[in-house]
Amino acid sequence: LEGITLERGKAAIRPEAKAVHDEVGALLKNDPALQLEIQGHTDNSGSPTSNLTLSQERAGAVRVYLVATHGIDAARLTTAGFGDTRPVADNATDEGRAKNRRVELHRK
Questions:
Q1: Neighbours of 15 (CB within 10 A)
Q2: Is 95 buried (19+), middle (13-18) or exposed (0-12) by CB count in 10 A?
Q3: Alpha carbons 54 and 57: distance in angstroms, whole number
Q4: CA separation for the pair 78, 63 (Å, rounded)
Q5: What is the mean pLDDT of residues 26-54?
Q6: How far apart are CA 37 and CA 106, in angstroms?
Q7: Closest Cα to residue 27, out of 36, 18, 37?
Q8: Euclidean distance between CA atoms 41 and 67, whole angstroms
């Protein structure tokens, strides 16, 4: 799922990412049995401890958005934060770091 990206050092949902979150909300509404784990990730800027906390906050922000905006039962959504331990791109470049600041959704 592309488009669930975040700014450096923040857990707030970017306005341009709301459309993707709204698609996820619609998907969850259309499939009441679907349960997701929301996984937060960071780039390697900052300490491992702060990155872990930030990644957990990012996953939580998406969960709160889906519950508050779309009325999704919170019990269907779990969260996990992985900090900078699972990069998908090279943290040596701005583009790579931007790709690593993300939230992923996984079916449970």
A1: 7
A2: exposed
A3: 5
A4: 8
A5: 96
A6: 5
A7: 36
A8: 21
Q: Across the chain, which distance is largest between two alpha carbons, in Å?
A: 41
Q: By C-alpha distance, which of 55, 51, 59, 61 is closest to 106?
A: 59
Task: Give the per-residue SS3 of the chain.
Answer: CCCCECCCCCCCCCHHHHHHHHHHHHHHHHCCCCCEEEEEECCCCCCHHHHHHHHHHHHHHHHHHHHHHHCCCHHHEEEEECCCCCCCCCCCCHHHHHHHCEEEEEEC
pLDDT digits (tens, 9 = 90+) for 52-98: 999 999 999 999 999 999 999 999 999 999 999 999 999 999 999 98
Instruction: State the amino acid at position 68 in one-letter form.
Output: A
Q: Work out the number of other CB atoms within 10 angstroms of the CB of residue 46.
A: 16
